[in-house]
């Protein structure tokens, strides 16, 4: 019997901003190769949860385990943790003064310091993967939003992460550009990348998620495979939300 490796476990996670409790005892486990999709209304805690997993926000209580190790932000090297856990945001944050290729090579050059020619080859392979090899030498200003987001995904993959976190990666895009970014993410899922994705794209969640977590007021109130969540939600609050968005 194959024992599946646990990649991320969040245990009793708490986070407040001032007097506002944003995460209340959140528990979530994601195993190797699984795709977990977080859905819920704005302000339900989805983005804060994945920012806590990547230590862009520091939890107030509970634990975050990466590959079985409990991470202590005061003692552990968070740069090393972030090499394992890549993150793609709503906004692309590409360096405007660097070409697409230079954007992808920047972080590995600083952190991994590998052979530059080898890194360039890897970066070109990543551009092929996201369907943008012909854009290697252009600057971000000449790209569409969807292309910028695909470059941002390639840039994250350049660090060779074992886990990818996506925080509403299509919400800043024009509707006709959403599909190309989702296609890239579907391909990653097919290749077995472990992912946690915050999204409002319900059709995408149905297609790629191993399970869907519905968040409400800082808690995960329902966690189930997509066919159960979308066809037969158990919680009244989940039903209300899905009736509104579907």
UniProtKB/TrEMBL annotation:
Gene Ontology MF terms in the entry: ATP binding
Signal peptide from the UniProt entry: none
TM annotation in the entry: none
Taxonomic superkingdom: Bacteria
Keyword hit for Transport: yes
Entry keyword set: ATP-binding, Cell membrane, Membrane, Nucleotide-binding, Transport
SUPFAM superfamilies, per database record: P-loop containing nucleoside triphosphate hydrolases
Protein localization: Cell membrane
Domain ABC transporter, first and last residues per copy: 8-242
Topology versus the membrane: Peripheral membrane protein
Protein name: Polar amino acid ABC transporter ATP-binding protein
């Amino acid at each position: 019997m194959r024992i599946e490796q646990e990649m991320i476990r969040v245990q009793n996670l708490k986070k407040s901003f001032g007097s506002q409790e944003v995460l209340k005892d959140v528990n979530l486990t994601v195993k190797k190769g699984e795709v977990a999709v977080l859905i819920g209304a704005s302000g339900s805690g989805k983005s804060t949860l994945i920012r806590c997993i990547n230590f862009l926000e520091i939890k107030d209580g509970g634990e975050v385990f990466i590959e079985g190790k409990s991470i202590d932000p005061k003692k552990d090297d968070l740069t090393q943790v972030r090499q394992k856990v890549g993150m793609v945001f709503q906004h692309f944050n590409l360096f405007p003064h660097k070409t697409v290729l230079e954007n992808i090579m920047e972080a590995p050059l600083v952190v991994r310091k590998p052979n530059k020619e080898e890194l360039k080859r890897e970066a070109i392979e990543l551009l092929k993967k996201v369907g943008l090899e012909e854009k290697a030498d252009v600057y971000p200003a000449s790209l569409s939003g969807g292309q910028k987001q695909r470059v941002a995904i390639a840039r994250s993959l350049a660090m060779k992460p074992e886990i990818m976190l996506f925080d509403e990666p299509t919400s800043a895009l024009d509707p006709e550009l959403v599909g190309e970014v989702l296609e890239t993410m579907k391909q990653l899922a097919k290749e077995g990348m472990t992912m946690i994705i915050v999204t409002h794209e319900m059709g995408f969640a149905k297609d790629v998620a191993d399970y869907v977590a519905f968040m409400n007021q800082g808690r995960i109130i329902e966690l189930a495979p997509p066919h159960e969540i979308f066809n037969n939600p158990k919680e009244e609050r989940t039903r209300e939300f899905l009736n509104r968005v579907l």
